[in-house]
Each structure stands twice: as structure tokens, then as C-alpha cells.
Amino acid sequence: MNLILLGAPGAGKGTQAEAISAKLGIPQISTGNMLREAVKNGTALGLQAKEAMDSGALVSDEIVIGILKDRIAEPDAAKGFILDGFPRTVAQAEALDTMGVNIDKVLEIYVPDERICARMSGRRVCEACGASYHIEYKPTAVEDVCDKCGAKTVQRADDAPETVLSRLAVYREKTAPLKEFYGKTGKLLTVEGQEEVADTTKLVFEALGVND
Ligand code: ADP
Ligand code: ZN
């Protein structure tokens, strides 16, 4: 199964992608995590991406399409994958079509804007493995320590309140049109993100037709 997760920043795509990945045994492919990794490692790609990311803007289609294409060519993606954070523009969606990638379902996690900002302030991410947490909705067992790998969890620089507002504006302008793009294909499913992660996961599994 090849899946796309759509939704505003902070809607919970990453968290639900992890749950689906564990359930179906297919990899979560997060362009945001890949870009953050490149920035952390100071690669040429990271240097190009950093400024856009810090300001809440999108990284260029050319760069992101390049890394996505390489990633889905990896052996573990052969039996399916979950795209988390890609496509984010109509041009990126068209690039998937051009690559001949067949998408089975597009799942939108909808959260009203007024709830997004509150959510973002509690979001934390593991410095080492990229796993995502929330101090209220999905806390780590030990404060600031990743459950998966034991490294430190931190707030992302682009989760600062003023950056969140520009990311929401970018989402509305560049990414929201994908709902119409995929709506026309009949593959779009929408679930409303709930307060509790597990409640959203339940709705997600139901929408995808996989058993809890
Ligand atoms: P969120 O979880 O808030 O939706 P991500 O972790 O997916 O954010 O992405 C963080 C940042 O990385 C984005 O704000 C953007 O700058 C960059 N980025 C990630 N994916 C893409 C993409 N497909 N196209 C362009 N930029 C991207
Ligand atoms: Zn970790």
C-alpha cells in the first residue's frame, strides 16, 4: 500500500504515520525528518534547506523531489510506504505521477487552525531518531528522553509561535490545493484529529480499513 498523509503542520501526520508504519510494516517516509537530518549533518543539501526551514517556508520542489525519488528507490519501500510531508505542492504531486508512482490512498488529518497553534507549542522531537512526541498528548516515559532511542527530545526551531503562523499560511496557499487534486481521483479520505493520539489512530485505521 502506498499512502500519502495530508494535513496542516502539527495536525499529527508524523505520529499517525509512525502508528501506520508499525501496523502495516511499511516505512514512514518523512521529508521533514530527512531534511532535518541533512541540516544536522551539515551536508550540502542541509545547507541549502536550512534557511527556508527556519523561516517556515518550503524547501524548493527540485530539492525535495530529488530526495524523495532516491528514498522510494530504497529496497524497504518496494512493498509500500507512507509519505509524511510529501507532496506539499501540486508540482510535487505531479512529480509523483511523472515518476509512475501509484498512490492507493490519501489520508487527510484535519485539525481546525485554532487548535493547531496550541498543539505546536507542546510538540517535541528526538534529536537523534526524529520520533515525535507531545508534552501533553504523547509524553515520553522519562521527561525529555526519547522512548525509542534514549536521546534527548527538543522543541523544533520552526515550532516557535511566529513561525507556526507563517507555516500555516504556506499550508493554506501551497498545500491545501492538494485536497482538490486528490479529491478528483477519488482517493482522498479525511479524519478529524482528536485530542487523544490513540483516538485518532483508531479513526485512521478505520478509514484505511485495517483492524485495530
Ligand atoms: P510539519 O510536521 O510541521 O508538517 P515537517 O517536519 O514535515 O513539518 O517539515 C518541516 C519543514 O521542512 C517544512 O516547514 C519545510 O520547510 C520543509 N519540508 C518538508 N517537506 C517538504 C516538502 N515536501 N516540500 C518542501 N519543503 C518541505
Ligand atoms: Zn530517538
Describe the 3D structure.
47% of the residues lie in helices and 15% in strands. It has 212 residues and is of the alpha/beta class. The strands form two sheets. It has a five-stranded parallel β-sheet, sandwiched between helices. Strands 6-5-7 form a three-stranded antiparallel β-sheet. The protein is globular. The structure holds adenosine-5'-diphosphate and zinc ion. Adenosine-5'-diphosphate binds at residues 9-10, 14, 31-32, 35, 52-53, 56-59, 64, 85-86, 88, 92, 158, 167.
Average pLDDT confidence is 94
Q: Helix content range of the residues, please?
A: 40-55%
Radius of gyration: 16 Å
Our measurement of the CA-to-CA distance between the termini, rounded to an integer number of angstroms, reads 17 Å
- Our estimate of the beta-strand percent is 15-25%
Tell me the strand order in the biggest sheet.
2-3-1-4-8
Order of helices and strands: EHEHHHEHEHEEEHHEH
Main beta sheet: strand number and arrangement?
5 strands, parallel
Question: Unreliable runs, pLDDT <50, ≥5 residues?
Answer: none
How would you classify the helix and strand content by structural class?
alpha/beta
- Shape descriptor: globular
With helices defined by DSSP (H or I, 4 residues minimum), what is the helix count?
9
